[in-house]
Structure formats: C-alpha cells, structure tokens
Write a structure and sequence with these properties.
Main location: membrane
Number of strands: 0
Subcellular location: Cell inner membrane; Cell membrane
Helix content: over 70%
CATH topology: MetI-like fold
GO molecular function: transmembrane transporter activity
Number of domains: 1
Distance between the termini: 45 Å
GO cellular component, one term: ATP-binding cassette (ABC) transporter complex
Family: Belongs to the binding-protein-dependent transport system permease family. HisMQ subfamily.
Mean pLDDT: 85
Number of helices: 12
Low-confidence stretches: none
Structural class: mainly alpha
CATH superfamily: MetI-like
Largest sheet: none
C-alpha cells in the first residue's frame, strides 16, 4: 500500500511539471517523510485524546487539588512554544539518563521520534482537554439531573449522556486541533526526525533547488484539505439530529 501511494504521489508530481530528475532522486525520501509525519500525527492525536478525556472531565468535576493540577498541566503546555517543549524533552532527557536507564526508559528517550511523539501528545492533550471541558460545560445541567432521576450513576451519566453531547459540540475545534498538529509536526525536523519537512531540507541541502519546498507545501496543503473535508462529513453526520428536517 505504501509503495502504491508513493508511486501515485510521484506520478502526480510529474503531471504537475516538477523536475523529473530531481523527483526521481529525492521524491522517495520525501514520501517516506510523509509516512513519518502521518505516524507522528496519528499517535500524538489519538493518545492525546485518550489523555484529554479524563483531564477535561477533571477540570469540571475534580476537587480543588485535582483541578489545580490539571489546570497547571494545561496552562504550561498551552502557554509555552511547542518548539521549546520539544527541546526540553529531547535535550533534557539526556540530563536524566541514569535515572531513565534504571527504569528501562532510556531506549525510548534516546530516540528523537519518540521524544517528539511524547511532546506532541502532551501538547495536544492540553488543548483537547480544554475543548472537552468547554463541551461538557455546554451540556445543560438538566441532562445530568434527568439521568440521575432515571437511576444512572455519575460515571454512566458521563459515558452515555454528557460526553456524547460534549464531543458533538467539540467536533469542530477538535478538527481544528488536528489540522494545527499536522502543520506543527514540521517542528520535528529540528531534532533530526525526517518527516516531510526534514526530508525536504535534506533534499534542498543536496540539490539547492527551491522546488523541493514546493513539494512540501503541496503535501501539507493536501493533508490539511483532506482532513478538513473528511471532518466536515463527520461533523454533519454526528450533528444531523440538531438540524431541522427538510420538508
């Protein structure tokens, strides 16, 4: 599948009039970088969402200490640059090599890809938690009261009543967060991860042909536009019960 998609991408590039020799030499490396980018975004956004669910609920339902801890986490990762966070994890992990080696985690933190994936996950979890918190607060209080009147426990109420409505309300900002993560993934190239931009920088350093950056811009544009269109379909389907029926 990867080979077929890579061939299709190179064919499209050729049809657009890009330099065939340059494309044959560096195109496969850029396609490999595309898979790296997709992997980073998929892992960070999916795991970040799993972390954001309890964080978002805790920001609403937690006690004073719990809310303070969750708010501190959210404030730090939303208030500091993503690039600085990547540097803190990638370069800072080496300061604790002995401790990480003792617990068997140095093998993870010595790999630039995992450092970036962990940083992206924590960063997007903070943003998604705030989106979920806003969605939960948008659900009318009467929904929870009605569920309690039916004998549902608090956990059951959240799983079956509150969270589905909160996520439906937050679909649009969650989609925006996914788009932002796709574009922000280019930061990974700064710490030697050969994603789309990393592979493009390598190609430019060997060829000095600015055309390779047009490849990268086109790839990011296609990714973002694809996600936008797919997310629009998901949002329309998830919120179809909120729209008035046609006559």
């Amino acid at each position: 599948m990867e080979a077929a998609l890579g061939h299709a991408i190179l064919t499209v590039w050729g049809a657009l009039g890009f330099d065939a020799e340059l494309m044959a030499r560096y195109g496969p490396r850029v396609v490999d970088g595309l898979w790296t980018t997709l992997g980073l975004v998929a892992v960070s956004c999916s795991v970040g969402f799993l972390l954001a669910l309890p964080l978002g609920v805790a920001l609403v339902e937690g006690g004073r200490v719990t809310r303070a801890l969750c708010l501190s986490f959210s404030t730090f990762f939303r208030g500091t640059p993503l690039l600085a966070q990547v540097f803190l994890v990638y370069y800072g992990a080496g300061q604790f090599r002995d401790a990480l080696d003792a617990v068997g985690l140095w093998g993870v933190f010595r790999d630039a890809w995992w450092c970036v994936a962990i940083t992206f996950t924590l960063n997007t979890a903070a943003y998604q938690a705030e989106i979920i918190r806003g969605g939960v607060r948008s659900v009318a209080r009467g929904q929870g009261e009605a569920a309690a009147a039916l004998g549902l426990r608090r956990g059951q109420t959240y799983l079956t009543v509150i969270l589905p409505q909160a996520l439906a309300q937050g679909l649009r900002p969650l989609g925006n967060e996914l788009v932002l993560m796709i574009k922000a993934s280019s930061i990974a190239s700064v710490v030697t991860v050969y994603d789309v931009l990393g592979a493009t920088k390598y190609a430019f350093s060997r060829s000095y042909d600015f055309e390779v950056y047009l490849w990268a811009a086109l790839i990011y544009l296609v990714l973002v536009e694809t996600v936008r269109r797919v997310w629009n379909l998901l949002e329309r389907r998830a919120t179809r019960h909120l729209r008035p029926r046609e006559a």
